[in-house]
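Let's do one together. I've listed all components of the complex below, 736 residues spread over two lines.
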Amino acid sequence: MIRPTPAVEAIPATVPFVGPEQLMRESGRSELVRLGANESAFGPSPKAVAAMTAELARLSWYGDPESLDLRDALAAKHRCSPEQITIGSGIDDVMGLAVRAFVAPGATALTTRGTYPTFNYHVIGYGGRLLYAPYCDDGTLDLDALLAIARRERPAIVYLANPDNPSGTFARRDAIERFFGALPHDSLFLLDEAYADFVDENHLLPPVFDDRIVRMRTFSKAYGMAGARIGYGLASVATVRTFQKIRLHYGINRNAQIGALAALGDEAFCDRVVRETALARDDYYALARELGLGCLESTTNFVCIDLGSAERATAVVNDLLERGVWIRKPGAPPLDRYVRVSAGTPEMRRAFAQAFRAVLAALPVEAL
Amino acid sequence: MIRPTPAVEAIPATVPFVGPEQLMRESGRSELVRLGANESAFGPSPKAVAAMTAELARLSWYGDPESLDLRDALAAKHRCSPEQITIGSGIDDVMGLAVRAFVAPGATALTTRGTYPTFNYHVIGYGGRLLYAPYCDDGTLDLDALLAIARRERPAIVYLANPDNPSGTFARRDAIERFFGALPHDSLFLLDEAYADFVDENHLLPPVFDDRIVRMRTFSKAYGMAGARIGYGLASVATVRTFQKIRLHYGINRNAQIGALAALGDEAFCDRVVRETALARDDYYALARELGLGCLESTTNFVCIDLGSAERATAVVNDLLERGVWIRKPGAPPLDRYVRVSAGTPEMRRAFAQAFRAVLAALPVEAL
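Okay, and this is what the predicted structure of the assembly comes out as:
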């Protein structure tokens, strides 16, 4: 009889994000208005598409295991050395490397309850123990609560998504600098900046390449390449060398490398996506006001709308799905009374608004 | 001061495969005749390219985390259930899952010294201990030696690449059935069938979905999609559920899923690649005969040519690189006296033959 290792057997079977493809199968639908995964509704840069199209015939070649050209371009962008950059198949991959490298079995890792859950998936998967701080009631990250726990427990990793998912809220540079400066010196600061491209660069932490911090970026959001699976970590040379000992050297799609490089060269496209995304947020704010609902001010490509209770928010997500509109909602208090809707094209926003109004109007009294 | 976990610190920094992109940088060349990584010289199926081209604009969507459509198609091909299939970003990824799931720190894993090294990379990376059997002198896998060690040491995993890389040799169905039947019941048989598409299906192990075996397949070789990073494991439902607890759910490129599905629907293309590959092998055999060199009979898309000594083989690889032809060579005896050249197009074979003849003619006497 063959059994997995005790460590792997101890991992509970969890249902990760249910994908829209599975929801479509279950509901018999052939399409959905996809507003549930914070994918870009504005697609990849046409320059990236052209570069990838031109190279598809050479997809029989492995990608460069060192992503040399892409790391050179990213080093120029972030004013660092290519030796301070690890490429991964999305932030999820880089995050897994950080947890595997720095969280020993039984060690602790600190996060905010209800924030991006894949960090937790990795911590549990590598036998770590999770510590949680709550969100503030207003949906912002409680940096003071995180700091208090960090200073008491000295966790191996302190994880922060900033801008945050699923709240969309953001802590500015000075607050993050104070936070990082006050962390215990043996805690690694794992800063998930998936949505940083939607923020004015002056409000972000400047480049810092210290053994105590790993910052993660992605081409999945503003660059519109979620399906390519390509992201990266900015870290010290020593940390990148550590990742080099455990990463999947041939894990990155060759066309993802080529598309990412071309996308970096099309800043005008990325700027347009950021502007379009701001318009989408404004539409959602206006819709919420029209319907007498609150919402969280977002610095990302999604907005959380307050439905007043978790039950009501869940009912709205389910009813929208029945009308062919796919969104998600946060799972843990205090955010679980919100629904989260991704920035769509104007057409997708109209479809959402129409379905959302109808769902709210039809919501049974007991769900109010 | 932040340090990696003791387990990760203990992993030696190794140089994995050096990619041709790095060799090009170091040598200042803008192109190489790529015959070093057993990539398909015949590209991906035009149907796969068409399907991927049509979907590039939707690369802003994440791929389906469950690869539902692809697993359905693979289940039909392998006469099994989709619940018996795990999709990974290449065999390397699936192999990492198997090692992580079944090789506890300090446990042993058995392989052949000098065969595909990424298995070793994972075993060392997860704190396992490697046991080695040698190749037979004729370059075939020594199944008896592997069995003797397996029965004595009861390793957590017994790894076999069949057809083998880098030798290109192959053990037929009856030998593999006897081997699997004689393994200790607590050893997992990890069967790497990356090159199985080049073999007559009747010579392969028939479908078997037992907790004691994981078979791995890929779209990187006959399907010509190495750059896509997509492969899969065929295993028991229980093992697939175990992988589900630790795999990167959003690790697969969406276009890789789409291309793989289209490639499965183009058997005629795959058949043509297999025929072209056989012609390439014949060319290499004839070239070796012409030059008075031996070679190993291959069932794969590469051929090993005998240079008589490791020094001479190394010199030939280096000299070919100086002439713009990139091949590799096995690193461990008894295969280290061979060079390994991948099946190229007729044009690439001519370029190789010309450079190979010139290199041999120019080889200094002390290397003979």
